[in-house]
Amino acid sequence: MSKDxxxxxxxxxxxxxxYYKSLLDTTYNEVVGFLLTKYGAATDDYFKESSYxxxxxxxxxxxxxxxxxxxxSSEGLYCHHIDxxxxxxxxxxxxxxxxxxxxxxxxxERLVYSDLIEHAILHxxxxxxxxxxxxxxxxxxxxxxxxxxxxxxxxxxKEWEINCYNKSFLEISEAxxxxxxxxxxIIKKEVRERKEKEKQRLIDMIGNRYPYLKEKGVNQYSSRxxxxxxxxxxxxxxxxxxxxxxxLKKETSNNKLWNEFFEEVHDRQIVVDIARxxxxxxxxxxxxEMWKKEQEILEEKQAREYEIYLEQFKEHYPRLDxxxxxPHTITRQKILNGLYDLKYKNKYSKKELKSKKINTxxxxxxxxxxxxxxxI
Length: 376
Description:
By secondary structure, this protein is mainly α. Helices cover about 65% and strands about 0% of the residues. It has a two-stranded antiparallel sheet. It folds into three domains: about 180 residues, no CATH class; about 130 residues, no CATH class; about 60 residues, no CATH class.
């Protein structure tokens, strides 16, 4: 970034909104360079090198990485990995554990400090200049914090968060205008479309699983007011007045409202599911019982029919009856023995007969046997 541009940005810092917008008019690398000059370089690596390498080498057995002394939250500053334009979530030990990324990305020379808004701008510029999904996850997390603190006025409680809140403070109108400006001009159309498709996919998936949510049109992306209204109707209407309820929930984050609402919907859906499963189980048992009765009736009918058929067979083939040869229960060897006794004993040995008839199927052998029994 040129000296003139740097001086202009310093002059604009009294007008925070214009200052932040001016950063958005430059490139990611230029903003990184400007912030390094503004806040100074890091004096320690983000993670301790020995711990980093030992943890990655453990292939998940070690679950944490010892951090270096990089925090400047007392000044209201965040620490950003410059190389997040190449790899996401370089500060997340859980994600790094399953990677094989070199330690170079964690070195102090690859870190830069920023306030909350500047940090969000860094991620927005990454999403603009580099391939999807780089930058977008970090931007969404940080813009969510901006919206929570400055637009919804749900103020932070932790000391380090309060420092960050004060450092980059914006009025409601300024924060709203800045986020809208970033969404409109910086976040690429392709990224916005992918986000919307993924968002809709999640809404459809959860709506299909929980019909109540689909009916009410409520999901994790619903406005705070929608969540408050639906949570009140579902859980609190019989417990307290609306005024008492809104007072109770005034400091509750949207995520917590959604989680509470979703848990109640989930619990009720489980009750519905169990009732449905029990009904289906009963219906299945009834179907199985009916099938068993039908099978018993069918088997009885087939048994009677076979008895009649067997009696007819015995009357028609008395010689086979005397030899204990009956259809359906006779073996190939017994048929050959019958043929041998009735016709072939003076012509072949049993072994020769078996060899001679090897290509004749059992049904044809039995037909020959029945014919011979009535001829003799």
